[in-house]
Amino acid sequence: MNPLGVFVQMMPLWERFRGVICTKTRVVGAGVLVLGLLSGCTTAASPPSSPAATASPAPTQAAPTQAAPSSVSPVPSSSAVPSKDTEPSNVAAPSKVSAPPKLSPEAQLETDRLLILAAKANDAAKVRELIAAGGNVNAKDEIQDSAFLYAGAEGFNEVLQLTLAAGADVRSINRYGGTALIPASEHGHTETVRILIAAGVPVDHVNNLGWTAMQEAILLNNGGPKQQDVVRQLLAAGADPDIRDPQGRTALQNAERLGFTEIAALIRAR
Q1: Residues 145 and 201 in one domain
Q2: Domain housing 160
């Protein structure tokens, strides 16, 4: 047989065989393409899982916001600290300051001397300073004047109030044996009389001359409006107008004798 003829005869078989191979190749290629698409879909679907993974830390990040109130909680406790810091400004501090210092005998004498001089000068600021320094408002000088007694007699009301606040002895007496109320009544210091009566000075005390505050208010002044007010205050405080002077006369009798009709009327109307 001619080889060329054989080859020519076999050509149709080769064409068919090649077609089968190409067909299979296309099928295999299509399969690979499908697999590639499927794998692409699965890899494309995996990114949505990453948001879930990133979303999961969100609650853990929310934890610091919940911890914020706990960080704020120390603020009230720290705000309570200033209230304790303000405690030293209590009333206890002035009481400690107002307590007079302990002085030596020599220093006490000098401070008391200066206090009496300041009272006689009606220097309230100096009196306050010397009281704070330990001055004794009941200490007396060589003529038996104390800061309290002199302020009461002369009507130095601011100084008088300072001495009363510092513990003045309202029953103390001057060189005439009289209380501060007697010369205050004599001089017609109406406001001073009011202060002394309120402080508890005895209204019926009799001095060495045998006179009460009411008798001196009548005998040693002019019977004017101030004296009338003094007598009115003494009567309201319970003073006895029937106490007699060394001559045996009552306050009413002295008022009538001196022509002080207004004072006499006040005594009759008591």
Answers
A1: no
A2: 102-169
Average pLDDT, the chain: 78
The rounded distance, in Å, linking the Cα atoms of 66 and 221 is 88
Contacts of 181 (CB under 8 A, 6+ apart): 152, 193, 196, 197, 201, 202, 203, 205, 213
CA terminus-to-terminus distance, the chain:
181
Lowest mean pLDDT among 3-7, 176-180, 185-189, 256-260: 3-7
78 in a structural domain: no
Residue 91 lies in a domain: no
User: Which amino acid, 156?
Assistant: F
Which residue, of 153, 169, 185, is where some domain finishes? 169
Mean pLDDT of 190-215: 98
Q: Could you tell me the pTM of the whole model?
A: 0.64
Q: Which of 230, 239, 220, 227 is nearest to 195 (CA)?
A: 230
Residues 193 and 154 in one domain: no
Residue 240's pLDDT band, with cuts at 50, 70 and 90, is very high
Check pLDDT > 60 for residue 106. Answer: yes
70-83 tens-digit pLDDT:
443 443 333 333 33
CB 119 within 8 A of CB 158: no
Selection from 125, 123, 111 nearest residue 156 by Cα:
123
* Distances, alpha carbon 112 to alpha carbons 17, 73, 141, 165, 264, in Å: 144, 59, 9, 16, 43
Q: What stretch of H or E contains 45? A: helix 3-45
Question: 76 phi and psi, to 5 degrees?
Answer: -60, -40
